[in-house]
Every structure is written in structure tokens, then in C-alpha cells.
Amino acid sequence: MIPFLTDAVHLLLRFGGWSLFAGFVYISCICIYRLYFHPLAEYPGPLSGKLTTWRAVWHGRSGDLHVDIWRCHQKYGPIFRYAPHRVVFASNTGFHGMDILPNSVQQEPVLYSIPLIKEVYSTLNVFDKKVHGRKRRILSQGLCDQNLKLLEPPLLRVVDHLCDRLGEKQDNFSPANMAEWSDFYTFDVMTELVFGRSFYTLDSNSHHYILDGIMSQMRRMSLLTEEPMIERLQIGRFLHPGAMAKALRFSQAGRSIMEDRKRNLNPGAADICSKLLSAKDPETGDGFPFQELSGSDTTSTAMAAAFFYLSRYPTALNKATNEIRSGFTSIHDFRPGPFIPAGMEVGAGIYALQHNTEYFPDPFVFRPERWLQSKSKGGDGGGGVDQSAFAPFSTGSRSCVGKRLAIIEFTVVLARILWRFDLGLLRGVRQGEYHTDWCFTSKKYGPYIQYRGRKVVE
């Protein structure tokens, strides 16, 4: 018996050794091919990126993917290879070229594989262009100018409620974490405008778990867009423990909200949900699946970043505050490029593009007046911006259909807070750039700012 076991062990060791050797040869061949014979071999880039997509996963997990792409652009130039089959641009021609040539560039199929609800795809991750066009035509009906005007009263109610909550503390320069207040505000706006009722996250924490679930889903998507194999190997639970459970809880809450809204549908109501559920595609007659309504995170990030920079740049804060307070007597008033082989992935890092000094001089300096000197408005561009490189809502057919609503939601609350409050900077807090972690959208921290109610002389 013992000799038999000994022979078996020797056989396994011999077989295992050959397996290890074969695996080593296989991996070596892949590495050699990707470094020297791959269609993108001539493009510069980090060695780890040329060999594997897991560099992007690592930085996505760390939250600094956008910064890593920017650093690579500083080292390798305006176009570099970030993954075996992927090149990234930091130029406006490269960015817009993906939309100028719609028949040559198509949506990356990986997004098609990551719906939270099986077989339910949004305008973001639907792969079929005809289906995307149908969804977008219906969405546009709910977000047309006529409907946006009807949404002004509920929007202003939430804005005023935020200001009232901030104004509850009458101490001189009370501190506030604007990341949290921004999240609560934008979520309450979204539920008020979309569903016709607020969840009052500005007042109560009973629905804060939904915000946590949204962020968990964004974390999940951030990794799957870099490496779809994470889903097939079921290792996402180790990279972001608990994220899937939180995302599913958010999905269940959203489904319950929509079912309730559908049961109490009032076609004459002003909320977006009522408009969309009664809307039909003029070409096909199809309606809009109610599982697909969502969104609030990007506006809250812009809002928190605005308060971060305003509190750290007194000159800009004074200009903005004076302009708003002097302008309103009342708060109630107001294509060429390099050849890319077929089948390769192309993209543009928005963070890197919008920190490119060719389009944004001194990109790490908060100077909002530069927008008054933009090239597209006839300025000479000196110290201004080139708006062709400004794309916070993306561009082309995949751009955000609700961008007008997002701009209104952001600018109104910023103006009203600056009108009602004096802002100040806490001592010892972070200076420089507002820090966010990449997670498909953004995870933010603070800023903590000081504020006090404005003393209006009658």
C-alpha cells in the first residue's frame, strides 16, 4: 500500500510540475505577444497596463483611477495604452471623435453585462443603439423645457428646506459637512421631482441606507467596467465586501417606490415619473420601463466641490457672493488622430482631459472667472478655457439627457446658500484640490465649512 501511495505522490508531483511549466510558458507567450506583437504595442504606457487590466482594477478599488490616468498622461503624453486592448486620450479631438464617428466606434459591451436588475438596461448600459434611441426619445419627453418649468416649485421647496436646516444653528460660523448635506439635498430633489414626494433625508436618517446602496452599486460598476471577469469569478464580494447586498437593498427599495407610484399614477401630476409612465415613443409606441428611473450622485459631487473651492478661495467667494447679492433683491428672484486597430477599446479620462493645460491653463487653480473668457465665446483663451474640452455630462448620443435639470438643481441651491449665508474656512483643513475617490461616479469627503446666517439690513 505504501509503495502505491509513494508512486501516486510522485506522479502527482510530476504532473503538477509539468502543469506549472505549461502555465508559465502560456503566460510568458501572452506577455511577449502583448509587449511586442499586439496591435497596440507601439503605444507608450505603464508596463503593468500593457500586460493586464488588473492595474485599472487596483486603482479603481483604491479610488484613484482618475488620478492615475492623469499621471500617466503626464508621463506618456496625450494618448497612451492603459490596458492590453485599451488606449486613453486626453485631447478634445480624441474625446469628440468617438461621437463624430458613430459607425466606427460603439459602446463597450462590458457595460451591457452589469445591470443590477436582470434584463433591465438603462440609457447608460444598453448596448443596442436602436433601443438606446427609443429610451432616450421617451426620457426627453419627461425632461422637456415645458416640464422643467413645472418642476420649479418643488425644487425650490427642497432648496429652501436645505437653507432652513443650515440656518437652524445661529452660532457664529457653525461647521457643516457639505458632502453629507449635498447628498441629502440632491436625493430629496430627485425623489421630489421624479416620484412626487420627498424622502426627507435632510431631516431623518431612515432612508440614508438608500444612499449607501447607490454608492455600493457605483463601486460594483466601477470594477466591472475595468474587468468583467470579476463578475464571472464571483470575487467582487472580496474586493468590496457587502457592496452587492447594499446595492440589492437599494434596488428593492427603488422597486417598492416605483410600484407605489405606478399604483397612484396621476397623468396630470408635474413629477417626472408621471410624465414618463404616460409617455410613448413617437416612432414605436413603446412606453418606458419604470425600473430604469434613478440618479442624483453627480450633482451632489459638483455641489460639494463648489463649496470646497469657494471656502478656500476668498476672492472667488467674494465675487460670487457679491454678484448674487447685488443682482437679486430677494432670494426668490433668480477628428484627426492616430490609427486605432479594429476591436480595440478607446476612451478619454474626463479628469485628465479637464486638467490638460492646453485647454485649462492652471488647471489646479480655482478661478471661475475663466469661464467668462472661454474661447467658444469669442475670447482669446488667455487664462480662460476651451469649452470643447469641457464635458461633465459626456457628449453625443450617450450624453446625460437630464443635464438641464442638473444645472438648474445645482445653480439654484448654490445661489440661494450664498445669498442667505456667510461662508468661512475651518482652520487646519485640506487645501489645494477637492479630493474624490473614483467609483464610476465619485465618493467624496467633506468639505467641512463654517457658515452663519447673513445679517440683512432692512
Automatic annotation (TrEMBL):
| PROSITE patterns referenced in this protein's UniProt entry, alphabetically | CYTOCHROME_P450 (PS00086)
Keywords, in A-Z order = Heme, Iron, Membrane, Metal-binding, Monooxygenase, Oxidoreductase, Transmembrane, Transmembrane helix
Give cofactor(s), names only.
Answer: heme
Which GO-annotated molecular functions does the record name?
Answer: heme binding; iron ion binding; monooxygenase activity; oxidoreductase activity, acting on paired donors, with incorporation or reduction of molecular oxygen
Membrane-spanning segments? 12-36
Q: Which Pfam families match?
A: p450
Q: Which domain of life is it from?
A: Eukaryota
Q: Which InterPro entries match?
A: Cyt_P450 (IPR001128), Cyt_P450_CS (IPR017972), Cyt_P450_E_grp-I (IPR002401), Cyt_P450_sf (IPR036396), Cytochrome_P450_monoxygenase (IPR050121)
Binding of heme occurs at: C400
The keyword Transcription belongs to this UniProt entry's keyword annotation:
no
Protein family: Belongs to the cytochrome P450 family.
The protein's name in its UniProt record: Cytochrome P450
| Species assigned in the record | Aspergillus homomorphus (strain CBS 101889)
Q: What does the record give as the organism's lineage?
A: Eukaryota, Fungi, Dikarya, Ascomycota, Pezizomycotina
